[in-house]
Design brief:
single chain; about 180 residues; mainly beta; Jelly Rolls; 13 strands
């Protein structure tokens, strides 16, 4: 077999496999939340579903006034160079990401930013696997206005769910999220 022909076959195979893999990727970017196109902030309910994935809001046990998700519009002054994003709008509320059909998935990356600007925030992601085991990754945001892309470790491949908590609003300030890359 000719060396060049072998290389061409390998390149074609890689392109096909890569295209199939890329087809399975999805980005949850919240651009369909139309209220945030003209408002700084607007209610987005307790669940958000897109591209076969679901985000679910759960208030902290002692939350007297659970709000749900809030869409953060481009007009919000701390959404610098941002697009429409989402936040769990209660102190210590949790957000859980699952696939709507219950199949495992991989969380590859997520964009995070402090909701109110210059106030440091940390976020811990907890992934649950099909056997019940858990993986974790913690991120400390830089305390500056603007978005940070967080790459999740390989341990977040083939998870059944990923949960993270909003800041307590006292020591750990709240965050917003966008561009969730899943597979």
């Amino acid at each position: 077999m000719n060396y060049r022909h072998t290389i061409r076959v390998l390149v074609a195979a890689v392109a096909i496999v890569g295209a199939q893999h890329a087809h399975a990727l999805a980005v949850l970017d919240f651009q369909n939340l139309t209220c945030a196109k003209t408002q700084e902030l607007c209610g987005a309910g307790d669940t958000y579903t897109a591209a076969g994935f679901m985000l679910q809001y759960a208030p902290a046990a002692d939350e007297p006034y659970p709000v749900g998700f809030t869409a953060v519009g481009k007009l919000w002054r701390f959404n610098v160079k941002g697009s429409i994003s989402l936040e769990a709008n209660s102190c210590s509320a949790t957000t859980t990401l699952t696939r709507t059909k219950g199949v495992n998935f991989s969380l590859l990356s997520i964009d995070l930013a402090e909701v109110n600007g210059d106030s440091p925030s940390s976020v811990t992601f907890i992934g649950t696997k099909s056997d019940g085991s858990q993986v974790t990754a913690s991120v400390n945001l830089d305390g500056k206005v603007g978005w940070q892309r967080v790459q999740l470790p390989r341990s977040f491949i083939k998870v059944n769910s990923v949960t993270w908590a909003q800041g307590d609003c006292i020591i750990n300030k709240p965050h917003m999220f966008d561009n969730i890359l899943v597979n």
